[in-house]
Design brief:
single chain, 231 residues, mainly alpha, three-stranded antiparallel sheet, 12 helices, 3 strands, 70% helix
């Protein structure tokens, strides 16, 4: 925890002169997504507030915001913890992903599409795979899906899915073999990108639907083995 807090203190500059609970929550959300605070970790108000240089009230409001996003949970007389997802949570996350991501692809207009961000995420994943950096590969895979959602050009959709993807990372941090979890989707990301480049949004949607079903099966299988139904 000392190492995480020392690293967290480096983020104080991000708060600038307009320190707000929203900015604190942005920092903590990113740190949770990156695995600095793994699922089940108790978050100390004194330690984190001191590291970021913010008041207790500001930090409590940030905790409240992240609890609303289902990233944290408050346990009476025990404190605030990074949430541990249940298998049912993981299944619900994937239902939401399928509803939103497939709808985004289905709703694309006429080609050509603005795919630079998607292509950059694919390249990022391929570099991570070539370097055997499986944690970074998982991050790149999330970036791929964020860029896919961004094709809708909707700030509201981006905001909703930001929380969904942050929750998904909680599940990923429990998995003990990120290579097995993420590597098979490198080729499939490239395939979806190429299908969209060809202007075939119906084909891309079908690839994506199968992709998400397969990913759900894989994640649930591993997650059930690691934490069980009563996480």
């Amino acid at each position: 925890m000392a190492e995480q807090l020392a690293s967290l203190a480096d983020d104080r500059a991000l708060l600038g002169r307009t320190s707000t609970a929203e900015r604190v929550s942005d920092i903590l959300r990113s740190r949770i997504a990156d695995g600095f605070f793994p699922p089940g970790t108790r978050l100390s108000e004194d330690s984190i507030g001191g590291a970021l240089g913010v008041s207790r009230n500001t930090l409590r409001e940030a905790f409240r915001l992240l609890t609303h996003e289902r990233l944290l949970v408050h346990e009476l007389n025990r404190g605030v913890f990074v949430r541990v997802l249940t298998v049912e949570d993981v299944e619900d996350i994937y239902r939401t992903r399928a509803l939103v991501e497939c709808a985004v692809v289905r709703g694309l207009g006429d080609p050509p599409y603005a795919l630079d961000g998607l292509a950059a995420a694919v390249a990022e994943g391929e570099r991570a795979g070539a370097e055997n950096d499986w944690k970074s590969l998982g991050t790149a895979n999330i970036h791929f899906h964020q860029e896919l959602v961004a094709l809708a050009g909707s700030e509201r959709t981006d905001e909703v899915m930001r929380s969904v993807f942050a929750e998904l990372r909680l599940a990923f941090h429990v998995v003990d073999d990120p290579r097995q979890l993420h590597e098979p989707y490198l080729v499939r990301n490239r395939q979806i990108l190429q299908t969209l480049r060809n202007g075939d949004k119906a084909g891309a949607e079908q690839l994506l639907a199968v992709y998400l079903r397969d990913s759900l099966d894989r994640v649930v299988e591993v997650y059930r083995r690691r934490v069980g139904d009563e996480a």
